[in-house]
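Homework-ish question, so no full write-ups if that breaks the rules, but can someone show me the predicted structure for this set?
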Amino acid sequence: MKIAIYGYGNLGRGVQAAINQNDDMELVGIFTRRDPATVKAEAPVYAAADIQNFKNDVDVLIICGGSATDLPEMTPALAADFNVVDSFDTHADIPAHFARVDAAAKQSGHTALISCGWDPGMFSVNRLYASAILPQGKDYTFWGKGVSQGHSDAIRRIEGVADARQYTCPVEAAVEAVRSGSQPELTTREKHTRLCYVVAKEGADLAAIERQIKTMPKYFADYDTAVHFISQEELDAHHKGIPHGGKVIRTGQTGSGANHVIEYSLKLDSNPEFTASVLVAYARAIGRLHGRGETGCKTVFDIPPIDLSPLSPDELRAHLL
Amino acid sequence: MKIAIYGYGNLGRGVQAAINQNDDMELVGIFTRRDPATVKAEAPVYAAADIQNFKNDVDVLIICGGSATDLPEMTPALAADFNVVDSFDTHADIPAHFARVDAAAKQSGHTALISCGWDPGMFSVNRLYASAILPQGKDYTFWGKGVSQGHSDAIRRIEGVADARQYTCPVEAAVEAVRSGSQPELTTREKHTRLCYVVAKEGADLAAIERQIKTMPKYFADYDTAVHFISQEELDAHHKGIPHGGKVIRTGQTGSGANHVIEYSLKLDSNPEFTASVLVAYARAIGRLHGRGETGCKTVFDIPPIDLSPLSPDELRAHLL
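A: Not a homework solution, just the prediction itself:
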């Protein structure tokens, strides 16, 4: 299967690495908005504007753009000429994005997958399986401990801040309460805390920075937030990774009143590399669906698990079932 | 969707309870090899031999028989006239069972699902997802703490034993070693222990019973086994439930050497009721696949998650993705 990457940041590099781990896939090109001559990669690098010249050379195009402004434009546009996979993760806007991509893909006869990764993605699939199995129940999603790029960026925009890294942390007591099957009602504050490591510029007003972080609406005001000022050296030494993870837990009752707990959890050293690995497995499925004549926009809900694997149905039944 | 149950033991009663929790399903009949007049149920009870009279009244038949002798005969035979779902769980014999059921269902134009439940079933699906996402990795399945009926029965057959209950327990140190990402090689003994509660008959040789349990080939000899003699009252008071569960863990590395841990775990107060709930969700999917003209034998690997849910695709994308 011939794969191309559109957008070459952390996620795009992760996709390149994931393709290397899958023998049935070949990376035929990387498309970037930067000057291709300045980009080092393990495959030919082309200008994004030239993508139309490769219509017949790519089975599935993995679009590695941002959800805020890139993907809402890119995915419908590229679905006119390619089978595409994206990681659109603005949950509230998924129905609108789906409608646009579905219209484009159906018109062109291509196959698209949106909102792939781990949340949305594997967490979504697990919410669906668990709610179908235990209709009388309640599910909870916890994130972390992991780095939120959006929250880290928000801190960096504060005056006097040189650098920052923000971790989202699940409240262990809340996780345990959920696992108990008591189906608690939990506020935002009760589910997660926010842990900030901040490098201040020389002479900055530390108290003012801390106050601005803790009172920032949406980002921090609804959470218990801890702020630690550290040196740039310390941040570089201990906080340069991009770990993340989390868990989806559903508890529910069956006929006799018996309690059941279904839990899916991820602990990821590299958020973009794991997300990329999910995208690549689903790219395989999208190539197969297109081969079967299934066009339009899909989500992880529509994909039979078997289409993610390079192994044959016989092998899977014999060894994994 | 009109569902019928074939076989009315613990699992069949669990299916009846699960159907009650799903508003889009109706239980149209229960078929038993016992005298129907002696069976109390929440739906009409018929003799198993009369099932052929109901060919046109049942959308999906859930077969609740044992894997040792019932299902290898029942599922192919019933697939000649019905869409069927079973929980065949003898892992080594799945390919042969699949072939027989597939031939029967294809010939009759029906749709069948075999080996549904949690292992095989949800554990299998999770092994597949995780191995497709992290091709460079290793997966582990742990069972328990939970009751093994087969091991409990094996103890009861020993001379001098009045009753017994056996729990399979994961070794926590092994689970932690797996979660660390070190990908240890674990022997049978290192992964699970066996915990036995035994009621001895009056005057029985307790030391002989304990020795016979601990040295029993296949069942106990390869495990560290603890034997506790208790009274029938104590066993009835504390060990009459049928809890089970376990976990599937895959750890793997992506491009930069980053480690990732994917874990799916179940903690079930009632093994048969949870298994039944999985069967019922998949019965919905099999009814839909049949409606789309997909015939032959399927497994959980073939079923798109979306077909398990009573919710519409729009609702699922808006609320669970």
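Now go work out the reasoning yourself. Hint: Chain A is about 35% helix and 25% strand.
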